[in-house]
TrEMBL record:
The protein's name in its UniProt record: MFS family permease
UniProt source species: Nonomuraea africana
Gene3D superfamilies: MFS general substrate transporter like domains
Keywords, ordered alphabetically: Cell membrane, Membrane, Transmembrane, Transmembrane helix
Keyword field contains Acyltransferase: no
Length: 372
């Protein structure tokens, strides 16, 4: 939140404000594949610690530059790039570490807690960023530097394995990335579940814009965004319990159908609180889909491929994410908000039909149930 606010304060240019965020996302996406390969080669503990220290330094540099009234756009863009690179290394190393630290039977609970933390931070972060920025432009960046320092200390006390259990065969980076793609393509369940998750993520993200246009007023938009965040947070708190009730494959199918059935109901004209209520219910299922996919990745992927597989999947999800608001905006512009919502919901329903007829997702459920 503070990044675009400080750019707007400096330049009054929405284009430049968006540029900083786009540069950070692009850096993390583009470097995702080689970063995953490096995670499988390098000391994972040092990667985590180094990435946090880099982000402490970059955030502190922004705060100090603002205090000295000397912040420039090149400085901001450099921080966006460096932070994107640090994040592209941190998250595959983090994913590999979770698998190494957590026993298989506790992975659903671990990933559910991870979802809860991320969604709670996503819900509170923008409001906190705006509040801190109102107290002083440098404050959110200095506070962010402190949070990365806290993360650094936490990693110091975690027993993160330094290397994969089975050392990777010596190969070039291109060969290593190719090995990850070939392995992932041969995993029918991960391929089907990942494809379904990417489609659901794209369509659900795209549908937010026409819903915002439909509800109209700033107060109602605030209610919608709060409902999305609160529903995701509540869903993350029950996702581990859902995984104990349903096998992973079946959970993916049931959860996707639940979201697909709920979303078109937002167009019913039943008052200001109807759309937020429907969205809250729809988002209850979303975290369980992420948890189910995360657990299967952790269980199925060999340790020496963990970094590369996380890098490949990060690229797949990150590459599709920028298309979502563009898709939602185009449909809303040329068809209207309500037809856009119904059209995107219909596409989601078609994805559900295809997934339901997928023998991979149906037949995988009993095996995964026994594993959990």
């Amino acid at each position: 939140m503070a990044f675009p606010l400080v750019v707007l304060a400096m330049t009054a240019s929405p284009i430049q404000a968006g540029l900083v965020g786009a540069v950070a996302m692009a850096a993390e996406t583009i470097f995702g594949l080689p970063a995953g390969a490096l995670v499988d080669r390098w000391d994972r503990r040092r990667i985590l610690l180094g990435a946090d220290l880099v982000r402490v330094a970059t955030m502190a540099s922004l705060g100090l530059a603002l205090l000295a009234d000397s912040l420039t756009m090149p400085h901001l863009l450099a921080v966006a790039v460096v932070n994107g690179l640090a994040g592209s290394l941190f998250w595959p190393a983090h994913g590999a570490s979770v698998r190494a630290l957590v026993p298989s039977e506790q992975l659903p609970t671990a990933y559910a807690q991870e979802q809860a933390r991320q969604r709670a931070a996503g819900l509170a972060g923008p409001a906190l960023g705006g509040l801190l920025f109102s107290l002083g432009r440098a404050i959110p960046f200095l506070v962010d530097a402190v949070t990365y320092l806290v993360s650094f200390v936490c990693v110091v006390f975690a027993r993160v394995p330094r290397r994969p259990e089975t050392p990777a065969v010596r190969q070039s980076m291109r060969e290593g990335i190719g090995e990850a793609f070939r392995w992932l393509w041969g995993q029918h369940l991960l391929r089907a579940a990942g494809g379904l998750a990417i489609a659901v993520n794209l369509l659900v993200t795209a549908i937010k814009l026409p819903i915002i246009v439909m509800v109209g007023t700033p107060v109602d938009v605030g209610l919608v965004m709060a409902a999305l965040g609160a529903g995701g947070l509540a869903g993350s708190l029950i996702s581990a319990r859902l995984m104990r009730v349903l096998p992973i494959g079946r959970l993916l199918l049931v959860g996707t159908w639940f979201v697909a059935a709920a979303l078109p109901l937002v167009v019913l004209p039943l008052g200001s609180y109807w759309a937020p209520a429907v969205l809250f219910l729809a988002m209850l299922a979303a975290p369980a889909l992420n948890v189910a996919l995360g657990v299967e990745i952790a269980r199925a992927t060999p340790d020496h491929l963990q970094g590369r597989i996380h890098g490949v999947l990060m690229l797949a999800f990150s590459g599709a994410t920028p298309l979502a608001p563009l898709l939602g905006g185009l449909l809303t512009q040329y068809a209207g908000a309500v037809p856009a919502i119904l059209g995107l919901s219909a596409c989601l329903a078609l994805c559900c039909v295809a997934a339901t007829f997928s023998p991979t997702l149906r037949t995988a459920a009993p095996r995964l149930s026994q594993a959990s």
